[in-house]
Every structure is written in structure tokens, then in C-alpha cells.
Design goal:
The structure is a homodimer of 426-residue chains. By secondary structure, chain A is an alpha/beta fold. In chain A, 38% of the residues lie in helices and 27% in strands. Chain A has 3 domains: 133 residues, 3-Layer(aba) Sandwich (Rossmann fold), CATH 3.40.50.720; 161 residues, Dihydrodipicolinate Reductase, domain 2 (2-Layer Sandwich); 81 residues, Alpha-Beta Plaits. In chain A, strands 7, 8, 9, 10, 11, 12, 13, 14, 15, 16 and 17 form an 11-stranded mixed beta sheet that branches. The radius of gyration of chain A is 24 Å and the shape is elongated. Chain A starts with a strand and ends with a strand.
């Protein structure tokens, strides 16, 4: 039976989960995969943590050179996260011909080309299923399951923290700050939640997923990004009245005008399969020209779900000799000729406060009409007195037209303030 | 660039879809997959059909030996369906070292071992993604995405025809026969619908999927099977009152007592992700010990979705040199030591007609209690007169206990008839 030695760089949540899966399933993998996988080395400064997991002292190291040069190590699992020192460690492993399996979305989305160039040079494998949507095999699906398709649309709920927060806000009518605190207490949000709630994490993943889906590098700086920190419970409630659920969506579209990639809160119809993706669950919805609509659903984070993706890659690397690289001419940029759309099209939910309803509505509608924006739905709250909220939903229109129109709306005498603008998708 | 020649056996719905995808995406596959795939031969008696698709006359044949011996053919796509002549054709292709891609669930589930033995002998590839759930990459996921997991549960809606019929019956309150006729008129059901509505099609797929999930051959004759032909609209309506949706489920469980595989109608909670899988859509829900719950959703049939799965396999075969066979000691039977459970556990929806309600209920409850079955929910319809329907839902209990208890219930003086028994899952 083939023997494969693994090194794990970092025994955090994901590293610990990966170790446990490999330790507890060794015989299962021998039987079902025909390969004997052992953890030969771990890089971890906190020796006690490693010992507590039952790792032999001789296999614990705080020296990356020692770990990589270990002749028993064939595959290096990087689960440190962030750019440095992860990047140097991964490059060092690849330079010495070791296959790398990583869960590091930030590193991968920013330096994919550099990592792959290094991998190709030594014919090392480079696997990254765990970087996106945890144990849900979305990368494998894009690479090995959807090849027959020109993918037109990829829409996902790909950040667990924000989905947990929005689900609770929707259920309880609570405010963002309150739910965030509760999420932090329960471990669903980090002490510094910015990477999740500002949409960075989702943007990293969207850059990776849309690059694979559209077969061209989609650089991070092309991803429009907006987080959930400004979401107010009354908007969620008004949306519900109109039949919508609020989600932080990651949207990639590949159409005639070019590629459109964006992360932002959006209302979706409550009947759409993505609307039922609640709490910390994630899902990715794909539209291919042959397969039509498909959706993959599962946990987007956690020690064992992410460990599942890493070990899946380790087994794949251990049982396949072919290495299929996936990047796009090893460039940090999109290929020449690929266009990106910024003035994307959407429908819009707009809430504003009117001084005098009758007068304000007519004037607002007039301004919108000037920019080619027509109204499809309307809720008016309260009596016909001063300072009342008005909610409207537009037909599909252009982003820039909405922004320009709302500048004018805000300046109207009868309008106290434009309070919320939320895109309405699917 | 690598060139790969394909032969398509049978230009029916799926064969036609496969041809169109290969024809229309040739340049796309050259660019994105680095391989030039051409259709070099088709086996089709109806020459006009082939010509109408734009296939050159010289590539159309009605002679299988000629197709297989064509030196330009590397991969043979079998989309004839059924056991013979498909089996002989596939074996002939494998014997001559050609890789086979098939959508044939019946052939594959019955003769997997034989086909694989032949493939191994000549080192030919054998791919079958299209045999289950069409373009949804469930086979690829089980083989290359879920390896890290001991899979405990696989529950799917894996037949589009029955899901379409049950969805319409649920929405409209119509009877089975009426909706079946409409489904036949619209092309969602075959003129002879038995393979779908009696659950054979789902049983074939469940045999394949659970074999992969549980890493042992799960022979077709181990799959308990019950179709939807006896489903009555009033049971769907009563279930809805209790918060359930009726689906034809394919269930595979791998537990301490052994493997349990069954296809039958079942009520599921309306909040469960599978409950939202409507019309001809399919989905498979998996529970792995590491990844937790994941679900794959998409179209379960159709020319292009199934063609997507076939072309995906063709590309995989064309771009990988490694062939990873998946069977289980090339046997038609499960490995020694694998146990199958027939007396499975479930909750039950039971509808019976009572002569005198008060008396009947007490006696029925008494009989059930004797078999260790307790009641969790109850609906009584109509006034306290003669011949009124009573619906009850049990706690989890054993199948055989329910069958024995209901024989006794049917014999009670106060009971006119036991009308419906439907399992309640998830």
C-alpha cells in the first residue's frame, strides 16, 4: 500500500480538525482509498497544544525548514491563514517539490499565480478546496464537474458569520450590533469581525470561484464589496413584507458586456433555494449553459467541515499522479480582452423619509424617471403627516443611474433623507 | 493539443444532447481544457436523425463492430439505456481498450462488477456520472469530494418524474391518475411510466450511490422499493396540515446494525431543505462524520443536463491519465460481513376509517401500544358519526411492528379499513 506523509502548518481550529480526521480515519482510508496517510510533522509554537492532541513530541517543530526538509513529508497542509508567514512557508514547500494543500483564501486569491508558478517548476501539486465554502466540494465541482458548461452565473452565500447574523436579525428583529455581540459570544464571529462583516472574506472566495467558473483570473480588486454593518432591522422587516429575505450575496456574472463580480447585501425572493440557507450554512448557486441551475449547500466553516475539504485534497493528491493546474497564464491580472462591468444592473429597494408624503412621492418618482428608473412596488408607512418612511422597489436598472438619481432625491425639499439602498436579486 | 475522438452509441434524447454540447463547445474546450474533442462516430439506425443533427454521413454507422474498431475513437459514450444490447456494446468497447462513459443506471447497477473487470483487463476508463441525478456531480462528489468522511446517511429525491407528479398533486390537490396523464402529455413521464412511478429508476440510482457512499456493493435486490401509484391526494393534504411535504425518497443509512436502503414515498418536514425541491428538480442530501450535512441540487433529467454529466466525464477521461476504479472486489454481492437491515426504523403516518370514533381510537391505540408503538400526533376529521377518517403519526418505531400491528387494527370491529401508511422521515 502506498504511504503518504503529511505535515500540518498550524494547529489552530482547522489544523486541529485536520489532524483529528487523519488520526481517526487512518484505517478507514487504508481500506477505502488504498493509501496509508500519516501525520509526520506539525509546525506549531504551542507545543502543549500539539501534545494534547496526542502528537508525538518528536513530530512537533517550530522550525519551518525542518518540517519541509523532513524526507517523510510528501504533502504540506497550510492552515495558518493570512499572507505572511503562510506565503513564504508555502513557497518554500513548493520549491522543494512538496505538494501543498491550503485553506488560505486570502493568500490564494492574492498570490495564486505566484504559488502555481512555483508548483509547476517542481511539478508539485497545489490544492485549495478548503479555501472556499469549507467541506462543500465547490472547487472540485467547478474543475471536474462543470467542464461541459459555459457558466453564466454564480451566486453564493459564502460567509457563515454574516449569514448567521442576518438570519438572527431576520428572525428576531434585533439590531446588527446586538446580534454581532451574541455571535461573538457564541464563537460565530471573531473578536475583530471586519474580515467577515465588511465582506472581505466573501470577496476573496468570490475572486477564486469566479476565476474558476469564468476561466480567467478575476483579481480581487475587480470585486465590488459592501458589508452588512449598515443593515437596519426595519429594512429586513419591510423586505419580508414584500416577500424577500436579506442575504449577503457574492455574485459573479459572465455576460455579453463582460464579467461582473460583487459582494453586497441583497434581497432575494423567499421562494428561491438560496433563501432557505440559514444560520451559518452556505450555498453556491450556479447556472451553466448545459446543466441549468445547480446548487451546492453545506457548512461554510468549522474545524471538521474545513478539515474534510483539506483531507479530501490530501487523498486526491495521494491517489492521483496527474496534477491539473488551474490558473490563467500565471498572471495576477485577467487575460487581455476580458472586460469587467462596474455599472451593473439590478433592481433596488430604496427607503427614504418624506416630509410630506403626497408631494414627496411625486417628486421622487419624477427624479427617478429622469434617470430611466421606474417603480414596481411601494410601501408607505404611517399617516400622511411629516417625516414618514416610504419604501419603493425599482425595475431593473443601472447602478450608476441609481446613485446619481438618489443624490438628486436627497436634495429634494420634501425629502428628509435617503435612508437605505439595497439591491434586489433573483 | 491532445486530440480525443468520441463515439456516441444511440442518438436519443441524451445522445443528441451530448452531441450538441460537444459540437457547440469544441473551441471552448480547446481553450479551457486544452483538449480537442471531436465526435468521430455515432451508432444510430435512424440515419435521418443523425444527418439532421449535422453529423457527416461517413460517421454514421449501424454496426457496433465498425464503430468500436474505428482507430479515431478513444472514448465510447453509451446512452442506449437498458441491459441489452447496451451491455454487449459496452463490454466490446472495454475489451478493445476503449474508455466508456455511460448514463445507463440499470446496466451499471446490475453489472458494475462485470464492466469494471473488463475495464481493468485492458486498462480502459469507466465513467458513470450521468447515471445518477443527471448533471449534478454527485458521483464526482462521492468519489473525489467526500473521501474524508464516513457517510452515515444519503437521502435523495432522485427521480424527476415522480417529483413532478407529487409536486403537482400537492399544489393542486389533484389525483395521481390525472396528474400522470398531464405529465405524459408534457413529456415528464414515459408512455409506460412503471420504471419511474414504481420506484425502479430511483432504486437503480440508490444502489449505485449507496455503494459509493458506503464503500461496499449494495446490490439492487437489497433495496426496498415502493412507488407512488397508491398515493391519494387526501393524504398529501392531511400531511400538509401537519407541516409535512410528500416526496418519493431514496434513503441509504449506514449504522451500527448495518446498511438500510429503501425507496418509498415519505413525508418530510416542510422546513427541511429537501422539501423545497420541487417539480422535476432532484437533490441529494448527505451526512458525513466530518463535513456534516451537505446537499446537491439540480435537474435530474433532460438532454443537456445529462449531456453535461457525460461530457464532464469525457473531459475528465481525456485530461487525466490516472484511472481510479471504484468497485468492490468486482463482485455482484456485498462484501462478506456487511449486513443489511430490513426491519428499518421510521415514524409512520397512518390513516384509517373508524365506525365509531371514540371506541375505535381507544382500541387502535391499545393495539399499537401492544406492539410498542406510541402516537405523537392525531387529526380527526368529521363529526362523531360512522365511517370517519382518523389520521395519526407515530413516534419512531420498527417497520415490522407497524405491519403486524396494522393487521390487528384492520381486524377490529370498530375499524372499517386501514387506508394509508406513509413513512415520516427527516
Amino acid at each position: 500500500m502506498k504511504s503518504v506523509g503529511v505535515a500540518i502548518l498550524g494547529l489552530g481550529v482547522v489544523g486541529g480538525g485536520t489532524y483529528k480526521i487523519l488520526r481517526d480515519h487512518r484505517e478507514y482510508f487504508q481500506r477505502t482509498q488504498g493509501v496509508d496517510i500519516t501525520v509526520e510533522s506539525v509546525l506549531e509554537i504551542n507545543k502543549e497544544k500539539a501534545l494534547a492532541l496526542g502528537i508525538e513530541e518528536g513530530k512537533i517543530s517550530d522550525n519551518i525548514a525542518e518540517v519541509i526538509s523532513n524526507p517523510n513529508v510528501d504533502i504540506v497542509v497550510e492552515v495558518i491563514g493570512g499572507v505572511e508567514p503562510a506565503k513564504s512557508f508555502v513557497l518554500a514547500a513548493l520549491h522543494s517539490g512538496k505538494t501543498v494543500v491550503t485553506s488560505n483564501k486570502e493568500l490564494f486569491c492574492k498570490y495564486w499565480h505566484e504559488l502555481e508558478k512555483a508548483a509547476k517548476r517542481t511539478n508539485a501539486g497545489l490544492y485549495f478546496e478548503a479555501s472556499c465554502v469549507s467541506g462543500v466540494p465547490i472547487i472540485r465541482t467547478l474543475i471536474d464537474g462543470m467542464q461541459a458548461n459555459v457558466i453564466e452565473n454564480l451566486t453564493g452565500i459564502i460567509n457563515g458569520t454574516t449569514n448567521y447574523i442576518l438570519t438572527r436579525m431576520s428572525r428576531e428583529g434585533s439590531g446588527y450590533e446586538e446580534v454581532l455581540k451574541e455571535a461573538q459570544r457564541l464563537g460565530y464571529a471573531e473578536a475583530d469581525p471586519a474580515a467577515d462583516v465588511e465582506g472581505y472574506d466573501a470577496a476573496y472566495k468570490l475572486s477564486i470561484l469566479s476565476s474558476l467558473a469564468f476561466h480567467t483570473k478575476v483579481p480581487l480588486d475587480k470585486v465590488y464589496r459592501e458589508g452588512i454593518t449598515d443593515i437596519r432591522p426595519q429594512d429586513i422587516a419591510y423586505g419580508q413584507e414584500l416577500g424577500y429575505v436579506l442575504k449577503l450575496l457574492a455574485i459573479g456574472k459572465n455576460g455579453q458586456n463582460g464579467i461582473e463580480v460583487r459582494v453586497h447585501p441583497a434581497f432575494i425572493r423567499k421562494e428561491h433555494p438560496l433563501a432557505a440557507v440559514s444560520d451559518s450554512f452556505n450555498a453556491v448557486f450556479l447556472k451553466g449553459d448545459s446543466v441549468g441551475d445547480i446548487m451546492l449547500y453545506g457548512r461554510g466553516a468549522g474545524a471538521l467541515p474545513t478539515g474534510s475539504a483539506i483531507v479530501s485534497d490530501v487523498i486526491y493528491a495521494a491517489t492521483h499522479n496527474d496534477i491539473k493546474y488551474t490558473t490563467f497564464k500565471n498572471s495576477a491580472q485577467a487575460e487581455a480582452g476580458v472586460k469587467f462591468v462596474n455599472d451593473f444592473r439590478s433592481r433596488y429597494y430604496i427607503r427614504f423619509t418624506a416630509k410630506d408624503k403626497a408631494g414627496a412621492l411625486a417628486k421622487v418618482a419624477g427624479v427617478l424617471a429622469k434617470y430611466g428608473i421606474s417603480i414596481v412596488d411601494l410601501i408607505q408607512k404611517g399617516e400622511d403627516c411629516e417625516d414618514i418612511p416610504v419604501i419603493l422597489i425599482t425595475h431593473e436598472t443601472n447602478e450608476y443611474a441609481v446613485r446619481r438619481a438618489l443624490d438628486k432625491v436627497a436634495a429634494l425639499d420634501d425629502v428628509v433623507s435617503v435612508d437605505s439602498v439595497i439591491r434586489v436579486e433573483v
